[in-house]
Amino acid sequence: IAYASRSLTQAEMNYSQLDREALAIMFGVNHFYYYLFGKHFYLITDNQPLSRILHQNKVLPQMTSARLLRYATFLSGFNYSVKFKKGDENKNVDCLSRSSIKQLQISTDQLIGDEVNKMYFDKIFNISNEEITFSTIQTETEKDQDLAKIVKQLQ
Length: 155
Known about the structure:
- By secondary structure, the chain is mainly α.
- The protein has helices at 10-13, 17-31, 33-36, 48-53, 66-75, 91-94, 108-125, 134-143, 145-154, and strands at 40-45, 79-84.
- It has a domain at 10-99.
- A two-stranded parallel sheet has the order 1-2.
- It is elongated.
- 6% of the residues are buried.
- Keywords: Endonuclease, Hydrolase, Nuclease, Nucleotidyltransferase, RNA-directed DNA polymerase, Transferase.
């Protein structure tokens, strides 16, 4: 289970309500790309026009804004269904769209990226030259309390 949220930039605050809602969907799909790509998922929105515009099988009119056209083009690479859900039935995620604390100079993505890079490099520099064998995996699995319980239940 995960959630993601971010503040709008100054320019994004000037977007129409429809564009801001579409931007939120794009942010979510981009943020969870590795979980969503290649799998069917549902886009649930409380914006009925957007649920029709971003419908996977919808042909957009020629007068569609360039921004919405880009969003629809990007989303066409995914296997999704759009569901409309009334705002008063969607309260569990509504809090993420409310006023937020001003962002720090360093974004959350940058902080997370720095932490991931640190963990990645720690792993690289601590890699053992030993060959990994079945017996090594078995021994290490027995040492791990959680995995040992699972193995015991499977036997």
